[in-house]
Design goal:
By secondary structure, this protein is α/β, with parallel strands linked by helices. The protein has 2 domains: 56 residues, Orthogonal Bundle (DNA polymerase, domain 1); 276 residues, Aldolase class I (TIM Barrel). 31% of the residues lie in helices and 17% in strands. The chain is built from 11 helices and 14 strands. The strands form 3 sheets. Strands 3-4-5-6-9-10-11-12-13-14 form a 10-stranded mixed β-sheet. A two-stranded antiparallel ribbon has the order 1-2. A hairpin with a 5-residue loop joins β4 and β5. α5 packs parallel to α6 and α7 runs parallel beside α9. It is elongated, with a radius of gyration of 22 Å. The N terminus is likely disordered.
């Protein structure tokens, strides 16, 4: 299903607009097409990570085996990070082959890997069972290792400065396809494949390809598999998981009702409806005020600080008056702003802000008492940074 909405007419007069703001009364633009429901496609094979502990045991029982065998298989996958059935020696060989065939099918095949930052950033292009491509990025820092995962192949939100959004939506990923990205990153860290020696994945960000809250059920299942203690899941703290959204208000409200402690990241990119209608087309449905109200409600319910993501685009959204407007909207709230220098994408007419404009934007936010940092550009040279993921398989 796709949906479009007409933008609300501006009520701000040119005389009342902030200094430097565009004059009101310009012709309304047709909103970009949004796709909320993914196209129907064949489903991936059932995988252990799609199922709860009880569901896994039920499957094993249906096969005529003792339910505890499901726990053994889960321990290998989630706790020991085993992907070679030959290493599952506590399972009899004939049973091992049967259980692996039923519950651990090969979901993802790496078709391309690129490294940068001295081998501490690794981007993987994955091919799913149906040939669909998507990407994940593993980034190692001195104090943590962060896995940036995709929740969809492509994206239906059509943000014009994002390579993924411009590619359109191919399909939703399953819970297991999301979890397997994390498990693969965890295996790479544990086996010392990332520069710096053996380690562990500590943080997960749903900031790869796709709009996570448009694939709500699978993403929520993935969060539970990622955070449930082993052998039910990978045992990563909920507080180390960030779920990003462009602002699907009903889904934000639904996530708040889950009473989880994951962090919400809101991709705002403009503090005013006139510009955000263009940069983030979902704003034609839910305006800045509505989206922020939902974010504050999530912060109140979860006790977690909301992260405001803001891509700085030269001469588009980096004006001083917009920094002041953003500061007024956010001051006094449980919030932190991540300013993201716009990463280059093929064919884009936009580029990152000038350094002096970036510094002034930071200064003005801080003057309003709003915590702010400028995100580093990890992975930019391998098209692995924010907004660059397009699942390319060749140069």
């Amino acid at each position: 299903m796709s949906a479009t909405t007409e933008p609300a007419a501006s009520t701000e007069s040119a005389a009342s607009a902030p200094e430097g703001a565009p004059a009101a009364g310009s012709p309304a633009k047709t909103p970009a097409k949004l796709v909320f429901a993914a196209p129907r496609r064949a489903k991936p094979p059932r995988h252990l990570a799609d199922l709860t502990t009880d569901e896994r045991r039920a499957v094993v029982a249906e096969l005529g085996e003792k339910p505890f065998r499901a726990d053994q298989l889960s321990r290998h996958y989630f706790a020991r990070l085993v992907d070679d059935p030959a290493q599952m020696t506590d399972l009899p060989a004939p049973l091992r082959e049967r259980l692996v065939g039923e519950l651990l099918p090969d979901l993802l095949t790496p078709v391309r890997e690129l490294a940068c930052d001295g081998g501490k950033t690794l981007k993987t292009v994955w091919k799913a069972f149906d040939g669909v491509l998507f990407e994940s990025v593993l980034m190692r820092y001195p104090d943590r290792a962060t896995m940036c995962v995709s929740s969809q192949a492509g994206c239906g939100m059509n943000c014009p400065f994002c390579a993924t959004g411009q590619a359109g939506l191919t399909r939703n990923l399953s819970t297991a396809e999301i979890v397997e990205q994390v498990a693969a990153g965890a295996r790479a860290m544990a086996r010392g494949r990332v520069a710096g020696g053996p380690g562990r994945v500590s943080n997960i960000v749903f900031m790869g390809m796709g709009e996570p809250l448009a694939n709500y059920k699978a993403v929520l299942g993935a969060v539970r598999r990622i955070t449930d203690p082993a052998p039910a899941g990978l045992g990563i703290s909920q507080r180390s998981v960030t779920v990003s959204t462009v602002g699907l208000v009903p889904a934000i409200e639904k996530l708040a009702a889950e009473d989880m402690s994951v962090r919400l990241a809101l991709s705002l990119h403009a503090p005013d409806d006139e510009l955000r209608d263009e940069l983030v087309p979902i704003n034609n449905r839910w305006k800045v005020e509505e989206v922020l109200d939902a974010a504050w409600a999530y912060a109140d319910r979860s006790g977690r600080r909301v992260s405001i993501e803001y891509a700085l685009i030269k001469d588009i959204n980096d004006q001083g008056w917009r920094a002041d407007l953003l500061g007024r909207l956010l001051r006094g709230r449980l919030v932190h702003v991540n300013l993201i220098p716009l990463n280059p994408t093929p064919g884009s007419k936009w580029t990152a802000s000038r350094p002096e404009d970036e510094r002034e934007f930071v200064r003005r936010l801080e003057a309003h008492g709003v915590p702010v940092t400028v995100r580093d550009t990890r992975g930019r040279e391998i098209d692995g940074a924010c907004g660059q993921l397009a699942a390319a398989t060749k140069d």
